[in-house]
């Protein structure tokens, strides 16, 4: 009887926590739309959104209407979906590789996606038939395959996979730098450099129509494999003994992480630490079960990225800081804490 009451109490606590997180995300998006070089009241923001969605006829300044709908709201939605996607990628990779340091940035997937996107952007490879997102996806897959080949040759332990990912990341970063240095003019080089550091400045509604569906589809696919992710915590042999089709699930989940990473990189550049920090924070709050961990991580990643976007716009007056710099400022100390905790647990 007490066990049932305890389970019911935990379930209601989880529901309350989820509702609070959704409300917090909505508040953060409202602040992201209101805050900027031109301060716009929340009431004006609500009226501008209502005019476009519900067809109301509130009288507003056309400049304010355009800023809210065409620039800031789309930017906030892309930030939220990108943060959710990167955080989910971190959860999946950490479970599959059984390593607390695994994430797309560390494993070189982000660097490969950046190289693929730059090849389309600067060199024009496949231009017309291949979009920026397609180039980023191909780069992410190539990077993942390279890291897999290196890991197979060096041993399949999680530590060696991380080291192979770091090596692959350096390789693709070097390729990106070489392409920019040798093939881009000064204006292109400045734009690519700012974009590679993580930039939300160029996102518009077409990016929302890509990023939001990718994040939702990726979340549902990961949630469908939540039981398999729990099983991988005990190793591939244990997962196979529990009836998990190990190879098929690995291919599907690694493909999902590559797709989500490529979509994010193609829109906002390479952003690190989100997939590393947020899963650990969510795991601390809701526990290791992926049925609870996946939604908590997605919401946490969305909130964190919107918050980072707000900070990037207000930390330096009259200047926008690359969002990747902001996530690194928060993520690097958290990365150090994770390393020390992992060392104590050995």
Write the layout of secondary structure elements.
Elements: H1 2-34, H2 42-53, H3 62-97, H4 109-123, H5 132-154, H6 158-183, H7 186-196, H8 205-224, H9 226-232, H10 236-241, H11 246-268, H12 274-286, H13 290-314, H14 323-345
Helix pairs in contact: 1-3, 1-13, 2-3, 3-8, 3-11, 3-12, 3-13, 4-5, 4-6, 4-11, 5-6, 5-11, 8-11, 12-13, 12-14, 13-14
Protein name: Iron ABC transporter permease
Subcellular location: Cell membrane
Organism: Shinella sedimenti
How would you characterize the largest beta sheet? Answer: none
The sequence of SSEs as H and E is: HHHHHHHHHHHHHH
Low-confidence stretches: none
The pLDDT mean sits at: 84
CATH level-1 class:
Mainly Alpha
CATH superfamily: ABC transporter involved in vitamin B12 uptake, BtuC
> What proportion strand?
under 5%
Through-space gap between termini: 38 Å
CATH architecture assignment name: Orthogonal Bundle
- Label the structural class: mainly alpha
Supply the number of helical segments: 14
User: Using only CA atoms, what is the Rg?
Assistant: 21 Å
Give a count of the beta strands, DSSP E runs of length 2 or more.
0
CATH third-tier fold name: ABC transporter involved in vitamin B12 uptake, BtuC
Shape: globular
Overall structural domain count: 1
Helix content: over 70%
Folded structure, characterized:
The chain is mainly alpha-helical and 346 residues long. The protein has one domain (84-345): ABC transporter involved in vitamin B12 uptake, BtuC (Orthogonal Bundle). It contains 14 helices and no strands. Helix 3 packs across helix 13, helix 5 (132-154) crosses helix 11 (246-268) and helix 8 (205-224) packs antiparallel against helix 11 (246-268). 44% of the residues are buried. The model has no long low-confidence stretch (mean pLDDT 84). It holds the Pfam family FecCD. It is found in: Cell membrane. It comes from Shinella sedimenti. Its main location: membrane. The chain crosses the membrane at residues 12-35, 76-93, 105-130, 136-154, 161-180, 192-221, 252-281, 293-315, 321-340.
